[in-house]
Write a structure and sequence with these properties.
CATH class of the largest domain: Alpha Beta
CATH architecture of the largest domain: 2-Layer Sandwich
Number of domains: 3
CATH topology of the largest domain: Enolase-like, domain 1
Distance between the termini: 56 Å
Low-confidence stretches: 1-14
Strand content: 15-25%
Radius of gyration: 25 Å
Shape: elongated
Length: about 260
């Protein structure tokens, strides 16, 4: 068998994964949709509807929110991610800018690039029937181009896939971001809660003890955690299942010995 390259797609697990060799030489498996799924959900508070000439309707996304999401996942701009202008041109009274975005993969540490995208804005704006130069046109063209680049890795993909047209989905997104803003649901708080659960489970001697731990607010807290971190929810739920199995096996062994 030939030597594995730094990026090899594998399918034996039943889902799209990639084997990646980190700078330290460690080989890890990556879920190809990991970043996409982390970035795809849009905060409804960062959106507003718009209508263009001709009746076209859509959803506008706050550019500052995009920067916040990228900073949350990758780190500060210029350090964990960034963008660069590749080209620009003027045509039909519009300014067009071509840009691409780079980011440091959180798992592999590799510097990655999106494909280039063009953004365009009219150079002249009309207000009250009077035309005047738009001094924001260069900035807006760059914002447009960067937003298109970020879509390539999944940022705000739910808007472009039409999911925001579903009122139920928007309600779920509102609940998701409300939970995400809760101090008790930040990564550090969830980790502390998981450690606390492990400690309490270690002290359980029978199923009654296990039930008491569950009823002491764990079930409610897990539902809240599930809104922002399904993996943590599954891990903690798995701890209860594991402990229950251990207790049952111990009791069965005791009964068999008697």
């Amino acid at each position: 068998m030939g030597r594995m390259s730094k990026t090899d797609t594998v399918a034996e697990t039943g889902k799209a994964e990639t084997k990646v060799e980190t700078p330290a030489g460690k080989v890890v498996r990556l879920d190809n949709l990991d970043l996409w799924n982390r970035l795809k959900r849009t905060d409804p508070k960062a959106t507003k509807p718009f209508t263009r000439a001709g009746g076209f309707r859509g959803t506008q996304i706050d550019p500052t929110w995009r920067f916040q999401m990228m900073t949350e996942v990758f780190g500060p701009v210029g350090k964990g991610w960034g963008y660069e202008q590749m080209d620009w041109t003027i045509a039909e009274r519009m300014i067009f800018i071509c840009a691409r975005v780079w980011y440091i993969d959180p798992t592999s540490g590799e510097t990655c690039w999106t494909g280039p995208q063009w953004g365009g804005t009219e150079m002249v704006r009309r207000r009250n029937g009077i035309e005047a130069p738009d001094d924001e046109c260069f900035k807006m063209s760059m914002t447009d181009a960067v937003g298109k680049c970020l879509l390539q890795i999944g940022l705000a993909a739910d808007v472009y896939m039409g999911q925001f047209d579903d009122s139920k989905y928007r309600e779920e997104s509102e609940a998701f971001f409300a939970a995400k803003a809760n101090p008790d649901l930040q990564p550090e708080a969830i980790a502390a809660f998981e450690a606390e659960v492990k400690t309490r489970l270690n002290a359980c001697l029978d199923l009654d003890d296990l039930e008491e731990v569950w009823r002491a607010g764990v079930g409610t807290r897990l539902r809240e955690i599930g809104a922002v971190d399904k993996a943590a929810q599954h891990r903690i739920t798995g701890l209860f299942a594991q402990k229950k199995t251990e207790i049952i096996k111990r009791e069965e062994s005791r009964e068999a010995a008697e």
